[in-house]
């Protein structure tokens, strides 16, 4: 049953998370809050695009490009909690603290926030020279990125603001890959990607979930997403939580 308020805690299958590297928590966040979060995500994007059109400078928080069709495509805004009050409250609240602390095994610290959009936009942008890329988010892990920032263990939580279906570019994961050393190949435009032989397409699991659900994964898990063919945004609020060092760790 869909909740009317955000619960303070949810049961977690830690054995499955340890084995597979991910969990899907269906319909945890009530529709009224999802409506507010969608409005915040849209306002953040519209405000940023308006300012950019006026100043003719791309905001470094925005990742966008042109599709081969010539249309402008927005992947994400990172960081977002100063732009989205409801998201900030949820990110710092008891539910996310319980989920991430239980899965990390030590007190969790919020280190990352972004809105993923996977949507086209129609704004004047002749002032900027954008690369032309496809919609796909290539196979990757985020562990190397977080390790470089000093975080060895990170759990990512993605709250679905829209239904994640096969045609909206649902997240795909490769179960168990967080246990392996995964080869990453540098690319010019899309960061380091995981080659197909390390994560074959036939091993992928699509995380299909209605709006209000949470997808939780170990940042070392290989993941990706395909094109959003729905003609509508496929918005996620994505939050990264790192394990805090055990008391006394790192002391001289
Ligand atoms: O939003 C997506 O489809 C991909 C998200 C992702 O790869 C990430 O947050 O690392």
Structural class: alpha+beta
Number of helices: 5
User: What does the average pLDDT come to?
Assistant: 95
Rg from Cα:
18 Å
Unique bound compounds: 2-oxoglutaric acid
Order of helices and strands: HEHEEHHEEHEEEEEE
User: Order of strands across the widest beta sheet?
Assistant: 1-9-6-11-4-3-2
Instruction: Characterize the biggest β-sheet.
Output: 7 strands, antiparallel
CATH class: Mainly Beta
**Number of individual domains:** 1
Q: Determine the CATH superfamily.
A: q2cbj1_9rhob like domain
Structure, briefly:
The chain is an alpha+beta fold and 252 residues long.
Q: Could you explain the architecture of this structure?
A:
With 252 residues, the chain is of the alpha+beta class. The chain has helices at 14-20, 31-55, 85-91, 94-104, 143-148, and strands at residues 22-25, 62-66, 72-78, 108-121, 137-140, 154-160, 171-173, 205-206, 214-218, 223-225, 236-243. The protein has one domain (15-243): q2cbj1_9rhob like domain (Jelly Rolls, Sandwich), CATH 2.60.120. 22% of the residues lie in helices and 25% in strands. It is globular. Residues 246-252 have low confidence and may be disordered. Bound molecules: 2-oxoglutaric acid. 2-oxoglutaric acid (AKG) binds at residues 116, 137, 142, 169, 171, 223, 225, 236, 238.
